[in-house]
Design goal:
Length: about 220
């Protein structure tokens, strides 16, 4: 069986959050103002009022930009870029967005605990403290509920770099227990949604208590 095609960490994350490859918004931002407003208008089904509201301007200002009689200020361009990024997140279906948002829930640190299945996971080449190898990282059950919405909002507010940074911040704090890691390449990034029929279980720190052993986040990496 052929090995799944690899992509970059940013590419995999952006594909899930926006349905577009890494750098998608940067490519939109390089277009003319008319082309950018046309793209944003399509996302708002041609509704001029909604398009203007998304861009944070009046319809009169929007028409001035479209006609070329006026140019957006630096502050207006920032609002336009934010509107474009937010529109990109909505290219992903509502069902898929809901699945992504439900894919994290801090219920334990044991990847093999049968009481919890599903959730976000990544397969690829990962370096942790100098140890580089192929791993499957089941991180969904270790990140707080709603964390992926925070990642999405980081993209809307600050772009791709901000989203990747937020994602890595969460992995460092809640999964790896260290910032000394690098996701070198990704074969699969999946958000299957958390399935936790017993509800929030575990001790006050969100950890399962095992009769045989207690595993730290750094111990649960799988080949």
């Amino acid at each position: 069986m052929a090995k799944p095609q690899q992509t970059t960490w940013a590419g995999a994350l952006m594909a899930k959050l926006t349905g577009r490859a890494a750098g998608g918004h940067e490519r939109i931002a390089k277009k003319s103002i008319g082309e950018r407003l046309g793209w944003l208008g399509k996302r708002n089904r041609g509704d001029e009022e909604k398009t203007a509201a998304a861009a944070g301007v009046t319809k009169r200002t929007l028409r001035g930009w479209l006609s070329g009689k006026a140019k957006p200020s630096a502050k207006s361009l920032e609002k336009l870029e934010r509107a474009e990024r937010e529109a990109m997140t909505k290219l992903v279906s509502a069902k898929d967005r809901a699945e992504i948002d439900s894919s994290t829930k801090k219920v334990g640190t044991r990847s093999r605990d049968t009481r919890v299945s599903g959730g976000a996971y990544l397969s690829g080449t990962v370096r942790v403290s100098g140890d580089e190898r192929d791993r499957t990282i089941q991180f969904g059950r270790h990140l707080p509920s709603g964390f992926m919405d925070e990642v999405r909002q980081a993209f809307v507010e600050g772009g791709q770099e901000a989203a990747v940074s937020k994602m890595e911040e969460g992995l460092a704090q809640h999964y790896f227990g260290t910032s000394d890691f690098e996701i070198i390449s990704v074969e699969e990034l999946s958000f299957g949604g958390i399935n936790d029929p017993l509800g929030d279980v575990g001790d006050s720190g969100g950890r399962y208590v095992s009769d045989t052993e207690t595993l730290k986040p750094g111990d649960i990496l799988e080949d």
